[in-house]
Amino acid sequence: MIVDAISVDDKPTTWYKDRQILLIIGIFVIVAVAVSVSSTVLLLGERNNELSLLESVPPSSSPSTSNAPTLNFASRILKALYDSIDGPHWFAGWDFSSELAYCDFYGIACDDLEQITGIDLRDNNLRGSLPSEIGMLSSLRLLWLYDNSITGTIPSEIGMLSSLTNLDLDRNPITGTIPSEIGMLSSLTRLILYDNSIIGTIPSEIGMLSSLTFLRLWFNLITGTIPSEIGMLSSLDLLDFAFNSITGTIPSEVGLLSSLRVLYLEDISITGTIPSEIGMLSLFNWLYREDKSITGAIPPEIGMLSSLTYLYLDDNSISGTMPTELCALTNTQIFYDGYEISCTCIDSSYIEGTPCN
Fold this sequence. Notes:
Blueprint: H1 11-56, H2 73-84, E1 108-110, E2 116-120, E3 127-128, E4 142-144, E5 149-150, E6 166-168, E7 190-192, E8 214-216, E9 238-240, E10 262-264, E11 286-288, E12 310-312, E13 321-322, E14 333-335, E15 340-341
Parallel strand pairs: 2-4, 3-5, 4-6, 6-7, 7-8, 8-9, 9-10, 10-11, 11-12, 12-14, 13-15
Antiparallel strand pairs: 1-2
């Protein structure tokens, strides 16, 4: 009898092989996770050890720790100023390595909040240029650096000193121009820059200094004309542009300077006539103008200057007669030279210091 061969189903064999593969993959995953966990534990342990070591080291033994006091914001600004203008050679210096507070430094004034309000380093052997960091002293009201050897230019950042009332940099060899940003100093009352080597023109932005009472720019190398915006300085008491290379004419807007008492225009190159608007200056008491470039007649409106005590018009090219209106200035000393006059109280010869009565 022939028995038919029975076909053997191979599915059980395939399932067994798949099970083996899954088992191998599972073992691999378990091993990988175990290794990762072990590494993390070791890393955390090492970091904890490092922290423990750091905590056990006294601060004084750290190589990055210095015995010098840490400088705060205001001290860093003063340090920048000190370094920039040769602090080690000042007559009276600052010691940043000491425990002395910056408010106790020579020439420094502070308010109750320890904000720096004043820097007075006049005649202290300052050399070098002013750093831009000076503009970061937002509470500064007074900056006196005159009678030194400061060079370079006035930094534009000085316009950031919104509280500044008094800026005095005279008698230094400062060069460059007057920065237009100076017009941002809305609190400024005194601007004194005379006897430097400043060049360029007077910026029109100077007319924005509504609080200004005192402006002295004499003995510089300033050129250009007197800006008409000067007439916006209604609080101005003294205006001094003498000994510069200023040209053009005296702007009629000078008549708007209702508080002006003193005007110095000696030895500059302005031309033309004295504007009649000058007669509007009711508080005016001193006019000094000595230069052959002034022409024309003396305006009779000068006779309206009831407060005028001195009138200097020596060495000019003024023509015509002395206006009789000047005879009304009973308390005025008139300095003139060679004018043909019609005022009976002044003879035709040179008279100096004689009141017109």
